[in-house]
């Protein structure tokens, strides 16, 4: 039976919130998994694709992030944003932990429902929806959905008049990595009109939603958004709606979580009465640090500069910006390359225990496709001379990576994931 949201171990009983990559135990597990998988590959004899890039996912990290959320944002029930990484084991763990889910399409809704999650735990958080998907949501009892314009209200009236609607409002997302408000969100000078139209159409508006932008960096964005949400709650009450839920969206990052959570909690306390249920739609926060990727060096070009008398190297990996490093383009990330295996030496553990050798050579790191844009890192240095057959790894590869990978140039968009768990709680739930 799934654990209820309240049923977890107390959060302040010895858990270390790592911010990043867990405890020594977690690092050991991840290192062993990387090593075990890489040792299985003999580049001189392996079949095509056996040396493909692969992930190691630490479900214990997802579990710790959940406890950290509960500790800092106890009033906000997380609805994991499936789009960020629809990994089936991550979804299963979160379903067991009792979170809700933010789905953006029919496929995401279907994936979550197939796990046996009750439709009331899903919010279809997409203000501009496909008509057939709305029919699908109606048929399957997924009632909660967002809107931000009049056309969507007419669509809802026609297809799903019983829907529980959240009015998504505009936010100031100027300090975020991925701005969403240029595409979605009703401005405060349009909310009254929208609410009046919803009333006229006899639709059921139950709450307000917002998103401060993915990868948000200014906690004050939450304060302003909460003040605006309160304004709309008051407008709605005047028009005769009994709104009962506030959706504070996503935008949380591991590095700044406590600071954001403090501002958000204070703002909720000040502006949002206790009877209002509060939900959130975190994506990146839950998965970013849980996934590490290992990539094989498939080719190397030596670049000798006769004038300067220097030698540098271009390394070509079997994954790139058209694959799991799509996060460089779409999510404005800068993944950091590190050497996993050089010749016979595994360096993951060595680095972890303070290995510190001066840089020897300069590299640029490229993906496998024919396109010049396929560059993972324009410049970096390693202490080793890396060659074909060696392996690099990149941490923090869980968010907006494999979900937006393509098959450009015939490369696979589906990479193996080796699952480990550095938390007994997650291991028990997942049978790991
Ligand atoms: N909710 C909505 C509606 C989104 O569009 C997104 C991301 O684009 C998210 C939640 C997840 O955001 P994040 O990964 O920043 O938490």
From TrEMBL:
Its cofactor is pyridoxal 5'-phosphate. The keyword Cytoplasm applies. It is found in: Cytoplasm. Residues 59-288 form the Orn/DAP/Arg decarboxylase 2 N-terminal domain. The keyword Ribosomal protein does not apply. Its EC number is 4.1.1.17. Its main location: cytoplasm. InterPro entries: Ala_racemase/Decarboxylase_C, De-COase2_CS, De-COase2_N, De-COase2_pyr-phos_BS, Orn/DAP/Arg_de-COase, Orn_de-COase, PLP-binding_barrel. The active site is at residue 370. Homodimer. Only the dimer is catalytically active, as the active sites are constructed of residues from both monomers. Catalyzes the first and rate-limiting step of polyamine biosynthesis that converts ornithine into putrescine, which is the precursor for the polyamines, spermidine and spermine. Polyamines are essential for cell proliferation and are implicated in cellular processes, ranging from DNA replication to apoptosis. This is Ornithine decarboxylase. It comes from Glonium stellatum.
């Amino acid at each position: 039976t799934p654990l209820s949201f309240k049923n977890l171990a107390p959060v302040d009983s010895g858990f270390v919130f790592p911010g990043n990559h867990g405890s020594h135990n977690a690092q050991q597990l991840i290192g062993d998994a990387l090593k075990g998988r890489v040792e299985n590959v003999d580049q001189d004899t392996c079949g095509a694709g056996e040396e493909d890039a692969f992930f190691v996912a630490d479900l214990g990290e997802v579990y710790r992030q959940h406890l950290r959320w509960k500790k800092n944002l106890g009033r906000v029930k997380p609805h994991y944003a499936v789009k960020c990484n629809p990994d089936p084991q991550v979804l299963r763990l979160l379903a067991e932990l009792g979170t809700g889910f933010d789905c953006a399409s029919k496929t995401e809704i279907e994936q979550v429902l197939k796990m046996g999650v009750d439709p009331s735990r899903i919010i279809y958080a997409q203000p501009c929806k496909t008509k057939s998907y709305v029919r699908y949501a109606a048929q399957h009892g997924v009632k909660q959905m967002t809107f931000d314009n009049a056309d969507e209200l007419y669509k809802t009236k026609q297809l799903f008049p019983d829907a529980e609607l959240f009015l998504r409002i505009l936010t100031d997302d100027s300090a975020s990595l991925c701005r969403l408000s240029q595409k979605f969100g009703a401005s405060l000078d349009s909310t009254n009109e929208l609410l009046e139209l919803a009333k006229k159409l006899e639709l059921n508006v139950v709450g307000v939603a917002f998103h401060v932008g993915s990868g948000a960096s200014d906690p004050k964005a939450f304060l302003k958004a909460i003040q605006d949400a309160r304004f709309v709650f008051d407008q709605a009450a005047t028009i005769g709606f009994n709104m009962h839920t506030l959706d504070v969206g996503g935008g949380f990052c591991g590095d700044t979580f406590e600071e954001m959570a403090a501002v958000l909690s204070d703002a909720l306390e000040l502006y949002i009465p206790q009877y209002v249920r509060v939900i959130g739609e975190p994506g990146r926060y839950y998965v970013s640090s849980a996934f590490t990727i290992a990539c094989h060096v498939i080719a190397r070009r030596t670049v000798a500069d006769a004038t300067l008398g220097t030698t540098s190297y271009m390394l070509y990996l079997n994954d790139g910006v058209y694959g799991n490093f799509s996060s460089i383009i779409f999510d404005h990330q800068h993944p950091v390359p590190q050497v996993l295996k050089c010749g016979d030496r595994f360096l993951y553990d060595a680095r972890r225990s303070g290995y510190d050798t001066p840089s020897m050579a300069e590299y640029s790191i490229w993906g496998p496709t024919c396109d010049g844009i396929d560059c993972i890192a324009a410049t970096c240095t390693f202490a080793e001379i890396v060659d074909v057959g060696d392996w690099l790894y990149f941490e923090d590869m869980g968010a907006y990576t494999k979900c937006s990978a393509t098959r450009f140039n015939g490369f696979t968009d589906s990479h193996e994931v080796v699952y480990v768990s550095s938390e007994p709680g997650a291991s028990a739930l997942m049978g790991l």
